[in-house]
Write a structure and sequence with these properties.
Blueprint: H1 5-10, E1 16-18, H2 20-37, E2 44-50, H3 54-61, E3 68-79, E4 85-89, E5 102-110, H4 114-124, E6 130-139, E7 151-156, E8 161-162, E9 178-180
Helix pairs in contact: 2-3
Bound molecules: inosinic acid (IMP) and magnesium ion (MG).
Residues 49, 52, 77, 85, 107, 109-115, 160-162, 166, 192 line the site of inosinic acid.
Length: 192
C-alpha cells in the first residue's frame, strides 16, 4: 500500500527499541556462534528471507570468516479469511541447489513461526546435509507453530517493529535501529 503523506508527517521519528550498538553486538555474537559450529570447512549456504532479512544478511556475512554462498527467497505473510497467517513463498525453492549442502535459513524476525516453518519444510524436502535456522529478533509470544531457531539474536516484546530491514507497507527498512511502530503510524493496517 502506498504511504499516505499524512503518515509521513505524523511519524517523523519512531521510538527506538533496539539500538544500532546492540544490534551490532548481537550480530557479532551470532557470527561467532555460527562460525564455531561450521568450522569443518564445508561451505555454508545461507538462504535469506527477503526482503526483511536483507540488512541482517549484509551485516552478518561480513562477520563470517568461512566460505559461504547466498541465496534469496521472497516470502510474504498475510492474514487469511480466518486471521490465520498464510505464507506465500514467491520463489521456486526447488531451483536452489540444496541437496547435500550445509544450509543456514536466515530471517530477521520470528513472530507466529509460520514463515520460518514453511521455508524449513521446503528446504528439508530437498535433502540438505544439515539445516539450521537463525533469526535476529524473536518476539516473546506463543508461537502458532512450534519452532525454536538454532540461533536467536535478541528477544523483543510482542509489538510491531520496523527498521533494520523490517517494513510496514515497504517503508522504514532503512532505519539503522529497530523501532516500535506506534499504532498511529500504521493507518490501522497489519503491514506484515
Ligand atoms: P511469522 O511468519 O509470523 O513468524 O512472521 C515472520 C515474517 O513476518 C517476517 O519474515 C516478517 O517479514 C514479518 N513480520 C513479522 N513481525 C513483523 C514486525 O513486527 N515488523 C515487520 N515485519 C514483521
Ligand atoms: Mg513486511
Amino acid at each position: 500500500m502506498m504511504p499516505k503523506d499524512d503518515d509521513r508527517r505524523s511519524c517523523p521519528h519512531l521510538p527506538e527499541l533496539v539500538s544500532e550498538g546492540d544490534i551490532r553486538k548481537r550480530v557479532g555474537d551470532l557470527a561467532a556462534a555460527i562460525a564455531r559450529d561450521h568450522a569443518g570447512g564445508e561451505p555454508l549456504l545461507i538462504v535469506a528471507v527477503m526482503k526483511g532479512a536483507l540488512v541482517f544478511l549484509a551485516d552478518l556475512i561480513r562477520r563470517l570468516p568461512m566460505p559461504l554462498e547466498i541465496e534469496l527467497v521472497s516470502a510474504r505473510s498475510y492474514r487469511g479469511a480466518h486471521r490465520q497467517p498464510q505464507v506465500e513463498i514467491l520463489d521456486d525453492v526447488g531451483s536452489l541447489q540444496i541437496a547435500g549442502r550445509h544450509v543456514l535459513l536466515l530471517d530477521c524476525v520470528l513472530d507466529s513461526g509460520h514463515t520460518l516453518t514453511a521455508l524449513r519444510e521446503e528446504i528439508t524436502a530437498r535433502g540438505p546435509a544439515a539445516l539450521k535456522t537463525c533469526v535476529l529478533l524473536s518476539k516473546v509470544r506463543p508461537r502458532e507453530v512450534a519452532i525454536e531457531p538454532d540461533y536467536v539474536g535478541l528477544e523483543i516484546p510482542d509489538v510491531f517493529v520496523v527498521g533494520y530491514g523490517l517494513d510496514h507497507g515497504n517503508r522504514w527498512r532503512h532505519l539503522p535501529y529497530v523501532a516500535e511502530l506506534p499504532k498511529a503510524c500504521t493507518s490501522g493496517e497489519d503491514g506484515r
